[in-house]
Sequence to fold (253 residues):
Amino acid sequence: MKSAEQKAFRFPLTDVHCHILPGVDDGASSMEVTAGMLEQAYRDGIRTMIVTPHFRMGMFETPGTCIREAFRETEAYAQAHFPEMKLVLGCEFHAFSEMEEALKANPRFRLGGAYRVLLEFSGGDTPSYIRDRVLAAQRTGCRVIIAHAERYAAIQQEESLLRDLVRMGAEIQVNADSLLGFDGWGIKRFSGKLLEKGLVSYIGSDAHNTTNRPNRLAECARYVEKKYGPGAAERIFSENPETLLRAVLRTQG
Ligand SMILES: [Fe+2]
Fold:
């Protein structure tokens, strides 16, 4: 498989899911790693990154002040070295039972503070729990994007669950690594099936570093274009992220 570092994709890419902030979760461990990740993303033609540090009760509860500080540092570095790169502060928000209040009250759990949430589940969560938590997020006024939906057993076993979630208004994000086969053949095949059926709105890198979980978004965009056609690539890597960004930036402006 060719390296994602070979050339930029033919149009500017937006990464909607990545862990580039230094020292806030299991993503970039230092500013040096962050700088490497930004450089790689820039070289690959990524021009907008929604940075999505984890929030997960009992596991990743980095205070908002630390997140904002890490974001400011990262943004300053990006502006100095890659002035065309735009960063938006988001969050990968892990669902929990009492989450409604947190999601409503705290813009840091949403994407750019807009009413959009990148909602993560545990691998073994049940269909009824997933449905219920999506509805809970929607009650806060949020539009839900389900993070790496292809990785949950409930969705793998019951594709109708995914269709229900989409019917309920949720959008589906799949990881570049899943579709490219880095997480195994089964996940690759399943991700491809979701894409073929038009159920995927976004593909994100979910990059954590430059070594074992690098940014393969451009590589994935080339793969999607070749296998599913330019229309699919444009919809997933350009039109949908741009619509999302417009909503997010409207809130910020
Ligand atoms: Fe993630």
Observations:
- Residues 78 and 85 are 7 Å apart (CA to CA).
- The chain has ten helices and nine strands.
- The longest strand covers residues 13-18.
- Confidence is low (pLDDT under 50) at residues 1-5.
